[in-house]
Design a protein that fits this description.
The chain is built from 6 helices and 7 strands. The longest helix is centred in the first third of the chain and has 27 residues. 30% of the residues lie in helices and 22% in strands. The chain is α+β, with helices and mostly antiparallel strands. 21% of the residues are buried. A 7-stranded antiparallel beta sheet has the order 1-2-3-7-6-5-4, with helices on both faces. A hairpin with a 2-residue loop joins strand 6 and strand 7. Keywords: Membrane, Transmembrane, Transmembrane helix.
């Protein structure tokens, strides 16, 4: 077969990808240099500009107090000063015409922890509880009104470092009072949960005259107040309420 009669192979349509030659590298390098140069120019422009102040923070303008500062509380007004002082001075004064009680287990108006524990039916257990409750001190006053009735008022102070022992002590005594039969009770005004009680049936023991009783319990801060009134006849509500209200006004 002659060459002129041989079929001519068609040109291939497949092409190789172009290699990345030197020209492409130069273009890429120029682009990188352009970015770096642009960044440098941008920083230079910022450095040459005058600083622009930031916008102020949006905050409300608070009014300023005017006039002189308030005077500090006087010793008479500052309750902490009163209660950290002589606790006996906060007790009600013995009324004129009454007889000073000679049966109080106290010395010069003070009642130590042992003497106070002895006023309970289980002194040993009470002593341990008072130690746990951080008993600090107690002051007491008492008097006799003729042969009608006698009064005893105690102020028992706790340290109040780990618990609110004064309020707990009052709550415990109130529970005992309310557990008895034939008791009448009233809230002591201005004391929150302070209560006064009059026991209508007398306490009776063989060999003793019947003894009527009234009591009041309230607390303020770290001080628990106890009032006990005993007589040969029923104690009027007015008597125990008057004592309780006047004593709490001093705390």
């Amino acid at each position: 077969m002659e060459d002129s009669e041989r079929p001519v192979a068609p040109e291939s349509t497949a092409t190789r990808p172009r290699r990345r030659g030197r020209t492409a590298l130069l273009i890429a390098g120029a682009a990188v240099l352009g970015v770096v140069a642009g960044t440098c120019v941008g920083y230079q422009v910022q450095a040459d500009r005058e600083p622009v102040p930031l916008p102020p923070l949006s905050q409300p303008v608070l009014p300023q107090a005017t006039g002189p500062a308030p005077e500090p509380l006087s010793a008479a007004q500052d309750r902490r000063v009163r209660t950290d002082g002589d606790l006996r001075k906060l007790l009600l004064k013995r009324p004129a015409g009454t007889k000073e009680a000679d049966w109080l287990p106290a010395s010069d108006g003070w009642m130590d922890i042992a003497a106070y524990a002895d006023t309970f039916t289980e002194p040993g257990a009470t002593f341990s509880s008072l130690v746990s409750d951080e008993f600090r001190r107690a002051a007491v006053v008492g008097w006799e009104v003729g042969s009608s009735y006698s009064v005893e008022i105690r102020l028992v102070q706790f340290r109040h470092e780990d618990s609110l022992a004064a309020a707990d002590s009052v709550s415990n005594l109130q529970d005992w009072a309310e557990s008895e039969d034939g008791v009448e009770s009233w809230n002591i005004p201005g004391t929150g949960d302070g209560m006064a009680y009059v026991h209508t049936p007398p306490d009776t023991k063989p060999g003793y005259e019947p003894m009527y009783r009234a009591e009041a319990h309230a607390s303020r801060g770290d001080i628990a107040m106890e009032i006990w009134v005993y007589g040969d006849r029923r104690i009027p509500k007015k008597t125990i309420m008057d004592l309780a209200e006047r004593q709490m006004e001093r705390l």
